[in-house]
Amino acid sequence: MSENIENTVGNAEDYDASQIQVLEGLEAVRRRPGMYIGSTSASGLHHLVYEIVDNSIDEALAGFCSEISVEILPGDVIKVRDDGRGIPVDIQEQTGKSALDVVFTVLHAGGKFGGGGYKVSGGLHGVGASVVNALSAWLIVRVHKGGKIHEMRFSRGDITQLITIVGDTTESGTEVTFKPDSSIFEETAFSYETLKTRMREQAFLNAGLKISVEDKRPGSETRDDFRYEGGIREFVTYINRSKTALHDQVIYVSGERDDSMAEIALQYNDSYNEILLSFANNIHTPDGGMHETGFKAALTRVLNDYGKKTGLLKGDDKLTGEDCRDGITAVISVKLTEAQFEGQTKSKLGNSDIRTLVDNILSEKLTIFLEENPAVGRSILDKAITAARASEAARKARENIRRKNALDGMSLPGKLTDCNVSDPRLTEIYIVEGDSAGGSAKGGRDSRFQAILPLWGKMLNVEKARADKVYGNEKLTPVITALGAGIGEDFDSAKLRYHKIIIMADADVDGSHIRTLLLTFFFRFMRPLIEGGYVYAAQPPLYKLTRGKTVKYAFSDEELSEISAEMRGEDGKGKVEISRHKGLGEMDPEELWETTMNPETRILKRIELDDAADAALEADEIFTVLMGEKVEPRREFIELNAKFAVNVDV
Q: What is the longest distance spanned by two Cα atoms in the chain?
């Protein structure tokens, strides 16, 4: 072993300056793209667009831009245009190059480092334009400025055309067109819905700014325009549109100190879930930070003080932060000159002084609001007090589960048919709809690594139930116990007994309902299961095709056409019997194994939350629409998505 190591790394004396690499220009970005954009997957691909748009939004923050457009062009090309001042094209003294050249070819260059170009900026790391340039097969930038159109071209970060005047103009602004490098990214096809969601979010955060996004690819042409004069107030209203609000008015507070400002919008609804979105200089901070800390501290303190003052809280009664945020939808947006983000992807804000600013603003102005609107204050406090009681009941229910498991020696549910292997990395559990399907699954499974848990009766819709009702539910308890990882705040992925949790239900409306109920439960009470990629949906075949002794299965209408044509042969005269496939419970064990359980032939869909925070918000909305109280949003969703039902990933 020691000899192999020596041959690999050489002797200690050989390690000298010649082995130290210096990556010139943007070579470091191309060598390690994940350090700059997070990943080379779809998330990193779309991050390129956000970096360019962020620069345009910085112009809006500075008061010089009123419109931004984003276009997806044929061939995986993006064009971003703004009506700002236009990137400077004159010579930058420090480098002797044009400022436009520097912005697109030098890391940590831009107008955001105290030079007076921007008071507040989202792109404080200053790497946006140059990183996009480095990771693009080609990029063209056109600056409308001083009556002329200045154009510069690049390929994989290298200049292919110096600044050239290509026309006259009466407009001002910057236009960036680029094609991501397919040798860098795992995929280069942009998602219109992903960009649309991001652009809508940015329009909410910048009241009055118009942002348009348009798909110009053949066959998928569409366009959306966003402008919200109400800013984050309208953001909260939008998020709550499928919920029932406890009070009509969105509570809004804002304030400034020195060069920092903060604005907060919040509204309570009748759900039991918390949605808290925070932003710093228009950058989403999914991991929170000091602005969220200040918000949570102030909200908890104000509601406790108000409860004592009104007599709704007696003696030593005290609300926790979770109680105070039960059913809240809140958006926090702060703007500051020296934003201290943690990590290149800016997921957490570290400025301690912003915590004080947010805390002070919310404490002062929410207190005044509650005193001036006692009916709203009473409804909010009643909800928090009810949440506190439910939390206590949920705690006792969890204790009962722990105590029962301890007394029973962690006994497994009676209906569970376990597998022989104990290593969770090698095992999977099928959660099956109904006893009959469960029986077939038991007979058809590979007992070495496949466990079967049948479900029976109507399952609880956790979207409409408080936590204490969930923990003690007889239909959900077997699932909790079988998985072995706990629930809610006690959930621990390290204790999972299976690393593949497969929901197997019929390919019909009832099966879809069962799947949605289970996924809602996992999403609300065991979210790490989905975030960790442990949850799958089995895909039973839709059709059975028979010709003589040959039997094949089709999992979609497209596959049905292909397989039936193949089975008929070249003459086309062969008769193929096609039947809509029967339910899981009607399959014999061999048939179920071959179509739905055999790892060699089955189709599984992993249930994903691609980008944890943004996707979680979208998933929250989907689950609320599908499982919530309001009927109309559910009907609209089903009508809009019915044709995609077979292929939808949640």
A: 87
